[in-house]
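Q: Could you fold this chain for me?
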Amino acid sequence: MAKKEINVISLGGSIIIPKTGFDTGFLKKLKSLIEKRVKKGDRFILVIGGGATCRQYQKAAKEAAALTNFELDTLGIDVTRLNANFVRLFLGKLAHKDIIINPAKKIKTSRPVMVAGGWKPGCSTDKDAVLLARTYGARGMINASNINYVYTADPNKYPDAKPIPEMTWAEMRKLIGDKWRPGANLPFDPSAAKEAKKNKMKVYFVKGTNLSELEKAIEGKRINGTVVE
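A: Sure. Below is the predicted structure, expressed as structure tokens.
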């Protein structure tokens, strides 16, 4: 039997640590899902974002001092690594002993789960997830955020925004633009979209707190979400 392809999941920081505070009930359910899938032979790389926590730090830092985008990015990276280490510890013996910070370097581990944080300024953990998928030979990845679909506009600002079930990378790049900004609230990092298009990857966009939909994406089934390829 062929070895299963590793599952790369970009988990938004706002799922791990929402504005309302830690939801340990959800985190326990997420851990149970991962344990269940590991028993089926699945392996995972979980790439943890900074979410609302990151944006709060960046907003306060900008109000306190005139910071460059580079400096704001480094601050955000620190937050993603803190979040990633929290997830690593939460997963216990399932997870590799260190968080992954270099997506271009392949790690050998006997553990079924690796947890990654941010790498370099100039992009978000979305791009790190795409690079990790490439490094570990995955043909795609899952982007688990706090919304169900990619929409025609920000649904929190525009009530008439429409969900998009399927997109090409050209359509995605037209929607999000080409420029990365620290703390930007986009469905996907423009630099990640460029890299995913280049590597002909298939990316599932699902609401990360909807674990049944997340599991469908892991299994490569039809989802109530957006598929980009």
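A (continued): The chain has one domain: 7-228.
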